[in-house]
Amino acid sequence: FFGCLVFFLGMEKLIVCPYKRPNALCRLICFPWAGGGTSQLAQWGKFFSSSIEVSSVRLPGRESRLKEPFAKDMTTIVNEITSVLLKELQEKPFAFFGHSFGSYISFAVALHLKEKYELEPIHLFVSGAHAPNSEALLPIKSIPIRDAEDEDILTYIQILGGTPSEVLQNQDIKKQLILTFREDLRVLQTFSFEKTERNTPFSCDITCFNGSEDKAHDLEAWHDLTSGDTSFYKLPGGHFYLLEPSNEIFLTKHITRCIENAGL
């Protein structure tokens, strides 16, 4: 009983799933962007058929985990997600969707599952992110987070877009957003992935989405990370193109088709 309770509390803390579908054939687990919470991606559940259950990962330091200390590095995040979700992921097929910072977390979790447990998502959906083996990530790695002023971080958040300006009028929310974003960026800087010549980590298909007005991401390098198919889609909008209702519909329909075509 005690073990079940600990597992349940871990799930409740980490995973947000407003549209529970215990009989679903596949779980889609979503990983939000830097500074982001679970509200948008967890709501995707309402767009999917009964064969797919959608949940979103909630990292420490935000929403109901506000009082918890932020994760110090990518390994800590990967270990928490894996330990809480492992049993579920062993039970039925799963796919991952990550946007921006969330793409790197989803990749790191998938890599850990593959290396340690021989488990692999049936499909990896990544959005608004360089491939983790790309040199294009190096400038992000070298942003001096420790010395960056709040104003610099705020400018970066505003360049990315996706944060309504009225939210930034509220000083408390603004302060919390800057803090969360800074800590997420710090985590991203602890993540490194070197692809060796002979090692292709995955065999699942990978689909990369990007906003047409967003800065160019090095997507081609995702090709080298799987022996499966890699496909690329550009949708109208900037870095947060996925918050546009029409894009949301395209994404959820496309993801559904990919999962259903995986022959579950």
Automatic annotation (TrEMBL):
Annotated EC? 3.1.2.14
Q: Name one GO molecular function term.
A: fatty acyl-[ACP] hydrolase activity
SUPFAM superfamilies tied to this protein:
alpha/beta-Hydrolases
Q: Which Gene3D superfamilies match?
A: alpha/beta hydrolase (3.40.50.1820)
In the record, biological process GO terms are: medium-chain fatty acid biosynthetic process
Keywords, A to Z?
A: Fatty acid biosynthesis, Fatty acid metabolism, Hydrolase, Lipid biosynthesis, Lipid metabolism
According to UniProt, the reaction catalysed is: (9Z)-octadecenoyl-[ACP] + H2O = (9Z)-octadecenoate + holo-[ACP] + H(+)
KW Lipid biosynthesis (keyword) present: yes
The keyword RNA-binding appears for this protein: no
Q: Where is the Thioesterase domain?
A: 27-247
Q: What class of enzyme is it?
A: hydrolase
Give the signal peptide as a residue range, or say none if absent: none
The similarity comment for this entry is: Belongs to the thioesterase family.
Name the record gives this protein? S-acyl fatty acid synthase thioesterase, medium chain
Q: Which gene encodes it?
A: Sast
